[in-house]
Design goal:
Bound molecules: S-adenosylmethionine
Number of domains: 1
Order of helices and strands: EEHEHEEHEHEHEHHHHE
Helix content: 25-40%
Number of strands: 9
CATH topology: Rossmann fold
Strand content: 15-25%
GO biological process, one term: methylation
GO molecular function: DNA binding; N-methyltransferase activity
Pfam family, one: N6_N4_Mtase
Distance between the termini: 36 Å
Domain DNA methylase N-4/N-6: 16-203
Keywords: Methyltransferase, Transferase
Structural class: alpha/beta
Amino acid sequence: MDGLSIQSGQIVSVNKGGWDKSYGINHINEFNRAWLSLVREKINENATIWISGTVHNIFSVRQILIELGFKILNIITWEKNNPPPNFSYRYFTHSTEQVIWVKKNEKIPYYFNYELMKKINGNKQMKDVWKLPTIAPWEKSCGKHPTQKPLSLLIRLILASTKPNAWILDPFTGSSTTGIVANLINRQFIGIDQEESYLEISKNRKLEIESLQTAVDYRQKLVGFDHKKDLEQYLLEESSSNRDIQQNFNASHKIEQLSILFRVNNLNRLFLYD
Ligand SMILES: C[S@@+](CC[C@H](N)C(=O)[O-])C[C@H]1O[C@@H](n2cnc3c(N)ncnc32)[C@H](O)[C@@H]1O
């Protein structure tokens, strides 16, 4: 179903894209089972996965994750500082999204940057409710994706769960917010999407941050750190203390793995950052 938004003071219909339309719960479950099985098969034993979703999909994702043997670590609630208003006046304003964090194997240790999360939360344990803004206009400089995520949300997820040089895969990459954050903080990225126009936005966003100055500006605009320079300082410390390469996703097999994703999901494009 199309959503409603407000533009220049007018209520307008927003077409979120064909992928966002629902074809019923059985279809949703089957789709989630297909892609999550594939991802499970291909990732390393110590890998973790983050999956965000709206109420239409997230309960199905949780059910299928458990069915496939993933271990749920957290369900993060992203509380939006500035959600769009509700126009029907018949229920509460939707102001949250859930992000499920899971690990593949219950018995294998995984990476969690507990200390950093605590540090950026005023030296108190980071909770599972994150107050962060929705996407800012400067993040749309390369075109509009209807459900583009804010960089500030992705940076927290990625810093919490990866080391420098880690490979990150987003099989529903859209405008590649995941990849932009990955590259802004020295991680490697593979993105997949079925829509060529979204990959075009992704490519332009990638070109944009190849300017060193733009990359620094963007890092300083990210919300969730006490001071503008905190992230730069942390990245310096991180690169000197982490000389090993972490690979959540087995990079030596990446092309072969992705070609499998191609067929099953009927994907028609692959986009690679490094
Ligand atoms: C919620 S959006 C991702 C937005 C992204 N996180 C961003 O910040 O731009 C989901 C994306 O998945 C893509 N998609 C949906 N079904 C797909 C499929 N079967 N195979 C590949 N991509 C698909 C859509 O084209 C859409 O761009």
